[in-house]
Write a structure and sequence with these properties.
133 residues, elongated
């Protein structure tokens, strides 16, 4: 049973790291898009494509559900889950924003919160693994 638990912890930790990386990449995409489109007037049709944002939100929801959801159920720590859900709400709300600037601001807030939730989840998982050793 310990081996299964160890494998699940390893998978969750990797998913948290993937989620954190995707959050950072999303924020870079948002800021870069604003700079390129507003500042230079290029790339709007590609960088502002709604399919990119829908795909990012779906990926974020799946990774949060597995990594942070499993952590919340196992450790009964609501903070990472609540923070991640708040972040996903901002990200979902950004898709309904009337303009690119508002969408970028809401998305950056959302991915920032999701990233914080992943960091908290990784830290708690690391502490739990230290106590088991």
């Amino acid at each position: 049973m310990t081996r299964v638990t160890s494998s699940l912890s390893w998978i969750r930790a990797r998913l948290d790291r993937v989620g954190l990386t995707l959050s950072v990449l999303c924020a870079v995409h948002c800021v870069g898009t604003l700079v390129l489109v507003a500042g230079l007037g290029i790339g709007g049709s590609v960088l502002l494509n709604p399919a990119i944002h829908r795909t990012g939100l779906i990926l974020a929801m799946l990774i949060v559900a597995v990594a942070i959801g499993a952590g919340a159920l196992r450790h009964r720590r609501p903070a990472p889950f609540v923070i991640a859900m708040t972040g996903l709400t901002f990200m979902g709300g950004a898709m309904a924003a009337p303009a690119e600037f508002e969408e970028a601001v809401l998305t950056i807030i959302g991915v920032g919160l999701v990233a914080i939730a992943h960091v908290l989840n990784v830290r708690h998982l690391h502490r739990c693994n230290l106590h088991r050793s």
